[in-house]
Amino acid sequence: MQLSDDWRPSATLDVLKQRAALLQKIRQFFAKHDVLEVDTPILSRFGVSDLHLENLSCQLSNFPQRDFHLQTSPEYAMKRLLAAHGQSIYQLGKVFRDDAVGRHHNPEFTLLEWYRINFSMDQLITEVLELLVLVLGERPVMRLSYQQVFEQYLQINPLQASIIELQKCLSRYPHISDLVARESDRDTLLQLAMSIVIEPLFDKKAITVVHSFPASQAALAELNESDVRVAYRFEVYAGGIELANGYQELTDAKQQQARFDQDNRLRSQHNKPQKPVDFRLVQALESGLPRCAGVALGFDRLFMLAENLDDIRQALPFSITCA
């Protein structure tokens, strides 16, 4: 994708009006549900430690000794608010990721993230579906566990399959067979299977919810106490696009620190620099994060689906190519 010197915006005036209307509709949805809008910092001393995410970073002349990071999500700051005030909250604002640029990806995008006190994963999934029906209209809903998805589309159990079994299964797909043969990390193989093989097979006219991800992909989700092989994590897909990623949130500070440490071990194994972790999130959990569930939903992608747009550049006032 090439950068452009064209001064004109990416989106038409009609699209900008529809975008503004959807922002208003979402805010009305949360006002009706008595969820407080908050506005946390985009710039922070700490970034994300996740192996698969990278922050954009900068320096400030007043603090020359350290880097500051544009946030990939407002999650850490929002959880500090949850621990301090114990109220359901949402944020609708810009985030940044040093990631691919393409039809569904822009480094700067608008994220809708919200947290519901005393909600389970299932209750939050129900609320996500309520919002999607409001925006997209009634659609069939497919609700499957991660294990069910792999068994249905690949005839393999992702919770039991060995690395060799996963490689053998995925070697049937020529467009990834070379990559699969070189890959020895189990979760990377599972993520390749999900993103490249399985996701394109989801019914584009339906909303697909995949829940109960493997514990190794729990991220910041609680583990299922009745089956610790899986976590209370879910993802939502519609129109061939991943829209949302949510958790029944981890509240244990020691487990959170252990996951941060594991993130950095994985980064070292993949020849990526380790990241300083945001100890303030751990402190917030130590002080008492209330039981809650949270989800992050890509606003620009949702808007694309609502308006039948083919490229994220059509949904943005200025995409990265002309920003």
UniProtKB/TrEMBL annotation:
GO biological process, one term: lysyl-tRNA aminoacylation
Catalytic activity: D-beta-lysine + L-lysyl-[protein] + ATP = N(6)-((3R)-3,6-diaminohexanoyl)-L-lysyl-[protein] + AMP + diphosphate + H(+)
Pfam families given in the database record: tRNA-synt_2
GO-annotated cellular components: cytosol
SUPFAM superfamilies: Class II aaRS and biotin synthetases
Positions of the Aminoacyl-transfer RNA synthetases class-II family profile domain: 16-317
Enzyme Commission no: 6.3.1.-
GO MF: ATP binding; lysine-tRNA ligase activity; translation elongation factor activity; tRNA binding
InterPro entries referenced in this protein's UniProt entry, alphabetically: Aa-tRNA-synt_II, aa-tRNA-synth_II, aa-tRNA-synth_II/BPL/LPL, EpmA, Lys-tRNA-synth_II_C
Keyword ATP-binding appears in the UniProt entry: yes
Superkingdom assignment: Bacteria
Record Gene3D superfamilies: Bira Bifunctional Protein, Domain 2
Keywords: ATP-binding, Elongation factor, Ligase, Nucleotide-binding, Protein biosynthesis
Assembly and oligomerization: Homodimer.
NCBIfam families noted in UniProt: genX (TIGR00462), PRK09350.1 (NF006828)
Protein name stated in the entry: Elongation factor P--(R)-beta-lysine ligase
Species this chain originates from: Pseudidiomarina gelatinasegens
